[in-house]
Amino acid sequence: MATVFPFSAIVGQDEMKLALLIAAVDQKVGGVLAFGDRGAGKSTAVRALAALLPKMKTVVGCRYNCDPDQPERYCEECKEKVKHGKVKTAQVPVPVVDLPLGATEDRVVGALDLERALAKGEKAFEPGLLARAHRGFLYIDEANLLEDHLVDLLLDVAASGENVVEREGLSIRHPARFVLVGTGNPEEGELRPQLLDRFGMSVEVKTPDTLPERIEVVRRRDAFENDPAAFVADWSKEEAKLRRKISQAKERLPDVTVSDAALERAAKLCMTLGTDGLRGELTLMRAARALAALEHDKTVTDDHLKRIAPSALRHRLRRNPLDDAGSSVRVDRALAEIFG
């Protein structure tokens, strides 16, 4: 297994790192889209997060990473194990699965062995990438270049939390709840609005524009490439500290409260910006709550809402032909109007 650059060693890109940590604390936030300059650390951050995440509990031998604590969501195979009293559990790494741009539909959703089904009457199913990503993260590099038929598949599964494969009268279904993480360069094309709306947060990634920051990025990357093992060892304490922080935030999350005043502020902000639907408010509330949990706060404050609002709302704005300001500028103006 290739050595991964440590998450805590990434220089700058604070908005992207915070969004990824929030998605790790509460998967209900809905994933992260990182758009920006090439070579600015987007893919590095996603792969670093995969190595950082605390392990999760799963049913031993389950091809879909079923959660032992949620038997009502077991796949068919695990339900059979329950009947025979053979359910064992283990701690495994949280899956972070790459979705290649050229992937076939069968590779993504899984494939049914029709020959075996017709000859022996058995449902032989080879799980795809969606099965592997269940309870974890599905990573799409260059998400704006993903083929339309794969986008449609992802939208269907993301909406239902279940993958259904039907071939020649045979049908297989299994749970597929995952967090979408996408990266891309806006110069290479825009993302389809339907898929864009499925990302909880959208962050802008820019090349560092200060001399000390650029020098430190090059220094750390060079040190890592010269001796990956030694570099990772040097950052192991910081990684362990961050891993504990994520675990503790997940434990605190259910106890973090959101006051009516905070909900009113979030709703006013979304109304001022004219966001479609109510997904903006929901995402803003969930992300602010996860941020509060990360920072040991017991309730969501205006500060949490202000800090996370650009990431949660900038990709949900309608185009305004009378206002040529960028989406981030529009969010900042609305924040100033609502929060003063």
Report on the architecture of this protein.
Pfam families: AAA_lid_2, Mg_chelatase. It catalyses: protoporphyrin IX + Mg(2+) + ATP + H2O = Mg-protoporphyrin IX + ADP + phosphate + 3 H(+). The chain is α/β, with parallel strands linked by helices and 340 residues long. It folds into 2 domains: 7-55 and 93-205, 3-Layer(aba) Sandwich (Rossmann fold), CATH 3.40.50; 254-339, Orthogonal Bundle (Helicase, Ruva Protein, domain 3), CATH 1.10.8. The protein is 47% helix and 14% strand. It is built from 15 helices and 11 strands. A 5-stranded parallel sheet has the order 4-7-10-1-11. A two-stranded antiparallel sheet has the order 2-3. The longest helix is centred in the C-terminal third of the chain and has 17 residues, at 236-252. It is globular and about 65 Å long.
Can you tell me the CATH class of the largest domain? Answer: Alpha Beta
Taken in chain order, the helices and strands follow as: HEHEHEEHEHEHEHEEEHEHHHHHHH
Number of strands: 11
Determine the strand fraction and express it as a percent band. 5-15%
Number of domains: 2
Our count of helices gives 15
